Recover the amino acids of this structure.
């Protein structure tokens, strides 16, 4: 990938897309094309094809998606399946029509089977079973995208990488307590409680364990994957932490110790999710930020935007 190549980033207003645009420009890429909803509705097939024909990208990072947190996932399975299937299908076919040299797409750790076939999760386990029921609509659409890429490689010689991402967090995330993922939801709860003098109520008992990746690390690793890896690729920090550990770190950062309540009537989600990172490690790709550094930067960004 040359510095002068036309690099299109879908979902460029979102968490991953915006971080990719920022990182690519910082690395000296001269023709980064941010694609947001203002540029076109990727659910609309004709509009997507027309946009790609106009923009003529050489490479595509596909980060656009309809994404929710655990509660909204349960309420919107149909919409999540339909919208994500349409977005992914349109983007991949538009990339083929445009003659894109390579497409690197954002998958999700929720594509892995439930119950887990083995730990840590390895890329060849993806099709060994059905995803967790709470994430079925979203995860199945992402599985369809992976199958489409495999088919397009066989039929058209398309080059691709499919990033199976651990839990991402950072600035410009969706800080919503109903539709956001774990870290942004928690940060909003901490900020609201600190502002209003209340307590922070956290779902479950904090025992669920996840691999969390700060978004600046994720963008840098994604560029490395585009440059040097193909097929499905796990991306994570290599450090699996309890939700309780994240809460404790945020309590220390925000000076909110002693103001946490655990609502054990609410679900924890899948108990454990950790990834085999052999593929990114083989390419020398690893995170530079600690979990505390990432949480601190994200808290500072959100506080500055909402104080």
């Amino acid at each position: 990938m040359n510095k002068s190549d036309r690099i299109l980033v879908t979902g460029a207003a979102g968490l991953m897309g915006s971080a990719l645009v920022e990182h690519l420009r910082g690395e000296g890429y001269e023709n980064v094309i941010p694609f947001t909803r203002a540029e076109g509705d990727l659910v609309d097939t004709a509009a997507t094809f027309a946009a790609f024909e106009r923009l003529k990208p050489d490479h595509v990072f596909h980060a656009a998606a309809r994404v929710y947190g655990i509660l909204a996932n349960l309420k919107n399975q149909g919409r999540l399946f339909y919208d994500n299937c349409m977005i992914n299908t349109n983007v991949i076919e538009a990339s083929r029509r445009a003659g894109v040299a390579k497409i690197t797409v954002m998958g999700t750790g929720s594509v892995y089977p439930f119950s887990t076939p083995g730990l840590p999760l390895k890329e060849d386990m993806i099709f060994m079973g059905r995803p967790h029921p709470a994430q079925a609509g979203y995860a199945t659409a992402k599985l369809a995208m992976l199958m489409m890429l495999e088919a397009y490689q066989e039929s058209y010689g398309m080059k691709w990488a499919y990033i199976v991402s651990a839990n991402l967090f950072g600035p410009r995330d969706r800080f919503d307590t109903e539709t956001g993922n774990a870290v942004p939801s928690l940060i909003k709860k901490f900020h609201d409680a600190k502002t209003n003098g209340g307590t922070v109520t956290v779902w479950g008992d904090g025992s669920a364990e996840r691999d969390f990746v700060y978004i600046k690390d994720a963008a840098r690793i994604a560029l490395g994957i585009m440059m040097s890896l193909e097929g499905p690729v796990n991306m994570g920090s290599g450090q699996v932490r309890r939700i309780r550990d994240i809460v404790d770190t945020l309590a220390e950062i925000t000076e909110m110790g002693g103001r946490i309540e655990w609502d054990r009537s609410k679900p924890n989600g899948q108990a454990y999710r950790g990834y085999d990172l052999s593929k990114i490690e083989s390419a020398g790709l690893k995170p530079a930020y600690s979990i505390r550094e990432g949480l601190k930067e994200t808290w500072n960004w959100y506080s500055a935007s909402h104080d």
Observations:
- The chain has ten helices and eleven strands.
- The mean pLDDT is 94.
